[in-house]
Amino acid sequence: MASGSWYRLRLMPKPDAPLGAPAQPLTRTQWLICIIAAIGFAFDIYELLMMPVIQGRALAELLGVPEGSPEIRTWIGRIQLWSAQAGGFFGLIGGYLTDRFGRRRVLVWSILLYAFSALAAGFSTSVYMLLFFRCTTWIGVCVEFVAAVAWLAELFPDPRRREKVLGYTQAFSSLGGFLVTGASWLATAYAEHLPAIQGAHSAWRYTLISGVIPALPLLLIRPFLPESPAWREKREAGTLKRPSFLELFSPAYRRTTLVTALMFACSYGAAFGAIQLTPAAIVPGLTKADKDRALAEKAQIEERLKAIPDGSAEKQAALAQEREAVARLKQIAQAPNAIQFWQELGGLLGRFTLAFLAVRIVSRRSLLRVFQAPGLVIVPLVFLFPARMDLDLLKVGIFLAGFFTVAPFSFWGNYLPRVYPLHLRGTGESFAANVGGRMVGGAATFFTANLVVPYVISPLAPDASPSSQTALGAALVALLVYAVGSAACFFLPEPKGDQLPE
Question: Most buried one in 70, 94, 364, 479, CB count within 10 A?
């Protein structure tokens, strides 16, 4: 027996209990699969959310302009737009390859791509180099998500267990947001102790480079996990149909394809057209006055120190005041990380709430409306008021925005495998997630920053600060995408039965 066949047999998960039979405990291999899947989902988001955390500082350095400048807002939109387009286009191809060549093989190559793209981005010498490696990072993540969802759904055929596994493993996606926030915080706090890159100790570079670390355990373990049994059996029997993009628009799947793509676009539109603009384009405006005071105080102290004799008590007191001013500046620099933390906390709770409700609410439309209806009201209000007025109140608001906006991402991972047959599963999921979500919804950052704010908000509120204008634009975009998504939900097809279609 070939060695490759040996590990496939040894690691093949036992079939779930028949429908209606008592649920059997997960086997050791099934637990390993769930753990690796949770880690994979977490670090997908880790890679994507690096930019919202570091983009203000990174672009300020690469462009040579102050943080909060309109040029930064413009480049945030450009990087997000082209990253999303590249990720969506090649992610769509990746979904097709997942159906043609297997879930596991595509998973491994996609992890390699996004891990080493994140590493290379940390050494960027220009904004265009950063843009290129953010595009390749997105490509890897977009392919990995589709392959992982199809792989996981097919490894757990029991409907109730599949819903739980998909729901709870995807919930760990929000853990990736916590981890990247923590990585950014550590990089900001200890950057001066790390080796210089491009002649400086820039925290954003170390945060990007950290993206290669979490991929290592995935690369070591995932190649030895089993391929999807259903896909492999059909492939070996010669009965696996070839996937087809045109089949997505056949009468049997047209409505599903169009509605899921539109609603996925709305989910991403709320996240990237509003929430992910907050750390880099909105928070600096709320902290500007405090930062200016701390900088002015630090400059005054430094001027006084020049005239004070060394070793005197007055000198020691002035040095202590300088340290306090520096500490305040560091605390202010951590404000974007704090906002990201509260948003991720809300998203994590939202994902776990959806996982809990997914096996208790039969109607998929009703499950989605639990989050859509409150979000339609709450999320625009967060950007209309707290995001323009008060940093502490914004922490509460961004928590709620994360709760209602992030949870539906887990919904799609549960829903999509149930509406496409095996040979079309990766392709169908990829069209919704990558064309609808990444290419259309991911462009919402560009739409908000480069179209809504300069051409709609600025003429209406010309005296508002750039960060306040961005918040108003985010409120308008959030209201629009939530309204469209809520209307489209009425046309969302309910899956036919609990079993995955063959």
Answer: 94
